[in-house]
Amino acid sequence: MADYDVIVIGAGPGGYVCAIRCAQLGLKTACVEGRETLGGTCLNIGCIPSKALLHASHEVHEMHENFAKMGIKAGEPEIDWPQMKAYKDDVIKSNTSGIEFLFKKNKIDWLKGWGSIPKAGEVQVGDKTYTAKNIIIASGSVPASLPGVEVDEKTVVTSTGALELAGLPKKMVVIGAGVIGLEMGSVYARLGAEVTVIEYLDAITPGADAEVARQFQKLLSKQGFEFVLGAAVQSAVPKDGGATVTYKLKKDDSEHTVEADVVLVATGRKPFTDGLGLADIGVEMTQRGQIATDAHWQTSVPGIYAIGDAIVGPMLAHKAEDEGMAVAEVIAGKHGHVNYDVIPGVIYTWPEVASVGKTEEALKAEGKAYKVGKFSFMGNGRAKAVFASDGFVKMLVDKETDRILGCHIIGPSAGELIHEICVGMEFGAAAQDIALTCHAHPTFSEAVREAALACGDGPIHS
Ligand code: NAI
What we know:
22 strands, 3 domains, binds 1,4-dihydronicotinamide adenine dinucleotide, alpha/beta, globular, 7-stranded mixed β-sheet, FAD/NAD(P)-binding domain, 25% strand, single chain, Enolase-like, domain 1
């Protein structure tokens, strides 16, 4: 008799969701977590704390930009940085303790410590060995390192150090114009820092729809961001309480240096599988260091599964959650499934950027016949009322069938608006289905409907 039906290694959004679903499906479940609190990177040092700081700093931005226009005289906002960090820590605590409550409620044992797998069917935590019919690895990811860049988490920081800066920087250099760089860069730009983003590619947000990326760069530039594109960072070295960054421009190979109080390295993450003992038990890896799995998240070793950032696919909490629920169902003998074609991506800047499905560039590369329906938030009454009319909804549909292939939104609450399209795509919706659906007025959602109308006979308000 095994100690458990399932032991999940890692209590991030992939692992804890998986453990809860396993328990709900009647499986005796434990979850191994070495951190002091549950929730993994996302709740402790990622999505959740960054959203708290984005929220607080956005309020500061609103005070600067819009309060006076609305007739509110609040004076110059004063930033109490230790208090802002304390608020962020409270948000983390209430979220992580919420997961602890859910574990108790679902009778999931939290095995405290770092787990390893001595052999299939066994998980070792500290000096204890537990047996399990199924093991699910949900060990997540860590920031990837960059040659020449000396991270000390004080002046040269990853996303982890960026949440804990001792003081507010006056000058910040961000390496990498991806999600982390632009979100955390936004926090400090709004709190008064001069932010320079150095990006290897010629556009920001790799993989995004190019039209959205261009508009996004324009809007961030308006907020004070400086972008150096087509530039490879060679080194970042802490020096005299600040740091020096050296980069080479790809166009002429010229070398440049820039000084900053703080340098944020945001050039991607890599799977975290150290210490699990996977090589010793023969778990196959991909060339990029991810755990290789089949369509049911089974690794090359029977009874060992893997999900989330540690395997192939976008490193997104909600992708990991979906895989966690699906693999629990597979283990319980049900039909777990993840539709990888409908996984939204959101950047929580101002404005927000959200997308799902194919970009226009991807459709062109496939040679697909498509139509574009676009609608600017300039034509949306609600957006105008709240100073949020910069941006647009862009819908991409099959030219023949009108079926939605992708949607890209830059604008207010884009991260919420995108889900109408996600649901639509899951149901195989055509743009007309959205266009014929009554949308409450005045809402930002009307812009989505107008983009759908733009795929047909045309929008009303443009
Ligand atoms: P990323 O992959 O989104 O962006 C990294 C950027 O760094 C790329 O644009 C790349 O071209 C650039 N780069 C790489 N080497 C460089 C060099 N030597 N010099 C200059 N630029 C260089 O990675 P990021 O932002 O670190 O995020 C990591 C992961 O975390 C991503 O998979 C992201 O999706 C996920 N994440 C998601 C969030 C969300 O959904 N809102 C929030 C935060 C992270």
